[in-house]
Write a structure and sequence with these properties.
Layout lengths: L2 H7 L3 H8 L3 H5 L6 H13 L5 H4 L4 H4 L12
Length: about 80
């Protein structure tokens, strides 16, 4: 999922701005979503059932969320 698709799926510029607590002009001014904000949006999108974190970060999800690594096993 590319950045514009993610913003659209979350309800558009105004909705994303509200989710992040920033001005809509900041969101509309992005050429690319800053990584820290994109991580937050990926979690929100997954919680809302829009897409998975893997969909948003297909190449690097395992470096961001170690629990999603194929061979990860939690110690509990």
């Amino acid at each position: 999922m590319n950045d514009s698709q993610l913003i659209d799926a979350l309800g558009g510029v105004n909705a994303v701005a509200r989710l992040l607590g920033i001005a809509p002009a900041s969101v509309s001014g992005w050429k690319a979503i800053p990584t820290d904000r994109k991580i937050r949006l990926a979690v929100i999108a997954e919680d809302e059932g829009i897409c998975t974190r893997k969909d948003v970060f297909p190449e690097t999800y395992q470096n961001i969320w170690i629990e999603l690594r194929p061979n990860f096993s939690s110690i509990n």
